[in-house]
Design goal:
Rossmann fold, 7-stranded mixed sheet
Length: 194
């Protein structure tokens, strides 16, 4: 991978044809978020624009009870867009709708060079498994062909795919970018699996 700015994505129907997608998968407590917060600055230093998608298994809120935007959602608004001079956020209430699938979420992102998906470990996109022995959980990669590599605190000599140390941030970044799938490929595979 060369240093410098990656070329800007070409847009088609609002989606980037050159956007690439890779996931981080692992059990809770494996260190996915910690690894991701170390990788994002590494990619930024290389001139690679990154967005992330994080799956939550529980109810979550980005809004503060009692604030105006919270009151708008509680009153029944389908979407509330909050904007300031520093950031904006769009909150979409599902109400009785089913949870959004990964392809729907990917389509909502602004174009970037790389999207890193944390969670969605059962989806078929390419993923890096984050594994820690202390979790006491079995590794995911023996049963998941979409895991292209493992970042671990223990060796896996029979893994059948690259295994990197959790602290090898440059090596993990190289691997993630090399193994990331084009957005069109991720969307096509999701259609096939549906």
């Amino acid at each position: 991978m060369t240093a410098g700015r990656v070329s800007r994505p070409v847009l088609f129907l609002g989606m980037s044809l050159s956007m690439r997608v890779i996931g981080l998968a692992g059990w809770s407590g494996a260190g996915k978020t910690t690894l991701l917060t170390r990788l994002i600055p590494e990619f930024a230093n290389r001139g690679i624009a990154v967005s992330t998608i994080k799956h939550a298994h529980h109810a979550f809120d980005l809004d503060t009870p009692g604030k105006d935007s919270w009151a708008h959602r509680e009153a029944g608004a389908s979407e509330v867009l909050i904007s300031s001079a520093r950031r904006w956020a769009l909150l979409h209430e599902l109400r009785d709708e089913p949870e959004a699938k990964l392809p729907e979420l990917l389509a909502r992102l602004s174009p970037v060079d790389l999207v890193i998906v944390e969670g969605f470990k059962r989806d078929p996109h390419a993923k890096l498994e984050v594994y820690r022995v202390a979790n006491g959980k079995p590794p995911l990669h023996p049963q998941d062909d979409s895991i292209v590599a493992v970042a671990s605190d223990t060796p896996f000599p029979q893994a059948g795919r690259p295994v990197l140390g959790l602290d090898d941030i440059p090596g993990i970044a190289d691997l993630l970018f090399a193994r990331a799938q084009p957005l069109a490929e991720v969307l096509e595979r999701a259609r096939e699996e549906a």
